[in-house]
Amino acid sequence: MVKSLxxxxxxxxxxxxxxxxxxxKMRDSRVKNVTVMxxxxxxxxxxxxxxxxIIGDKKTKKTVLKVLEKASGFLRSELSNLIEIRRMPxxxxxxxxxxxxxxxxxxxxxxxxFPREENNDE
Length: 122
Hints:
Blueprint (H helix, E strand, L loop, with lengths): L4 H20 L9 E8 L5 E8 L3 H13 L1 H11 L7 E6 L2 H14 L11
Parallel strand pairs: 2-3
Antiparallel strand pairs: 1-2
Helix pairs in contact: 1-3
């Protein structure tokens, strides 16, 4: 299914606003190492998957995910103050470890002797 431009914009707005709310309005210091990587809203607006990257070990990541889940009501409320839609979806937080995987792959390729490709887009 192809997403509409409207849905893509809404997901991007959710992402920006969630970043702002987490950084400025959440008092729990454990969420300061959270990066919102993306948001996918279900077509029926039942839920929104929030993909987050968390710095730390497995225990820290699990703890921070629980903190975010417990704060989901607060986050939904804050989002509803910023985004005008009829139905505010429930937030589901999903760990996104894409960055860690790419670092591991880079390390493996380097260990195998593949040269690093420098990005010279200047």
